[in-house]
């Protein structure tokens, strides 16, 4: 994206999204604001962008919006252009100050943040008018009621007098947190955090316009304590000092990201008045310094489902002195605030369609709504999708094979376009799905005998070989005569690992479907959420049975919905309230104690 901010100095930004995501969504997920009042639905005709390179499809909306010369020059409506290859997109400056913002999966949010600023010109006190400074201010702000915190009261007298009684009242959740000299209503920011076990993402939001200003992500600094929530909980059980250190690590991660987005956006930390944090129950507990041990042992009880709002400083954040932090409520120990945020961002509580939401990860969270009832559950999928327990597995980083097509040749899509080093989760799913498709893996997940391989896929048969005793399929040879152990390959055991992971997940959603008396075909949309889920190939996910057997068009990459939910909570108090309502609406279904779980699991193992 080449973003013209109107300052005369366009910014170049590179983003990576799953194929098929619109240019508008790709921008919005990555903190790039494109004009819009319809929220990406193709009706406002404001999301004008210019796409360079080969001619793109033209829609009737483009024809209505642009002249033929503009169309020839690459102008299109950004919400109708899909990124199916690398694109270079010019984004013009924003023309309107929006009253609504587009967030999450096409959600339009009317701007009504908890942070409110009001510029007022006050009457100077006289002997005849001896109202206190605070009464003077509360009476001047006619549309809001509020109380004041001590910091604001301390500053008030000086600021009002020095600023000649022209001041801006800063309110967070109906509390006056500051009085600023002059009119500062255009300067109000918040930061949305997706506090993941592996990766943490921060988005700096301009609350005056609802637009994202900068996005940054980094690995959670708690990594040295273990890769998943269970190892981090165990760390606190083995060494009592770990809780404090884990909390410090969370704080350091949040602060470093805050500094990054503020620097990138050129925003003063003192202009950030609120943050929202969407994390799973363990990450939330650790960030607040709450002992997570009960989350790790049966009966898996949380200290609190709905954490109170706290000063942002309690999370280690150096922002405005009165800045507050809201932490998303959780449905249970294993369906946490990140999933509640995801439900909010994808409108699971609003949509009347039958929808299935799957956040694929080590712990996979599943939500099913038939338009009336919403059920949720968690399935322990294990580390396979993150490259763990897979021989050549790796995280989705440079060198990871992320897409695979098998035919007469092997076509690999590699992150960063470098020499393949390993296989990430989406590559793993593709590899197995393609091997099933060409007939080299049978329905039970076993590699077929070599003789059969030669007849079903002659061009690929020589790739079916062995490393030690174990049969493997070679995906990439670094040199023509490299021995299999030096290659990137998929082993028989890797296939088993994937089978267990996908069976855990598909058992989860199939039991939820059963609970509501629904069939596969009743599901109108499957939302694949999270950093891994979004990159899965829908066709491969269907082929291996990770999602119900549905036309691929019904399977949608939802992006980082936890982060989007956190943005929504900052932009709208009403939406924030919606997150709390979800706690009452959603019923959690415990799978592990169901008598039919094992049979269902075994049924789901095959392809
Ligand atoms: Fe309104 Fe594209 S966002 S038409």
UniProtKB/TrEMBL annotation:
<dbReference type="InterPro" id="IPR052911">
    <property type="entry name" value="Corrinoid_activation_enz"/>
</dbReference>
<dbReference type="InterPro" id="IPR027980">
    <property type="entry name" value="RACo_C"/>
</dbReference>
<protein>
    <submittedName>
        <fullName>DUF4445 domain-containing protein</fullName>
    </submittedName>
</protein>
<dbReference type="Pfam" id="PF17651">
    <property type="entry name" value="Raco_middle"/>
</dbReference>
<dbReference type="InterPro" id="IPR012675">
    <property type="entry name" value="Beta-grasp_dom_sf"/>
</dbReference>
<dbReference type="Pfam" id="PF14574">
    <property type="entry name" value="RACo_C_ter"/>
</dbReference>
<feature type="domain" description="2Fe-2S ferredoxin-type">
    <location>
        <begin position="1"/>
        <end position="95"/>
    </location>
</feature>
<dbReference type="Pfam" id="PF00111">
    <property type="entry name" value="Fer2"/>
</dbReference>
<dbReference type="InterPro" id="IPR036010">
    <property type="entry name" value="2Fe-2S_ferredoxin-like_sf"/>
</dbReference>
<dbReference type="InterPro" id="IPR001041">
    <property type="entry name" value="2Fe-2S_ferredoxin-type"/>
</dbReference>
<dbReference type="InterPro" id="IPR041414">
    <property type="entry name" value="Raco-like_middle"/>
</dbReference>
<dbReference type="GO" id="GO:0051536">
    <property type="term" value="F:iron-sulfur cluster binding"/>
</dbReference>
<dbReference type="Pfam" id="PF17650">
    <property type="entry name" value="RACo_linker"/>
</dbReference>
<dbReference type="InterPro" id="IPR040506">
    <property type="entry name" value="RACo_linker"/>
</dbReference>
<dbReference type="InterPro" id="IPR043129">
    <property type="entry name" value="ATPase_NBD"/>
</dbReference>
<dbReference type="InterPro" id="IPR042259">
    <property type="entry name" value="Raco-like_middle_sf"/>
</dbReference>
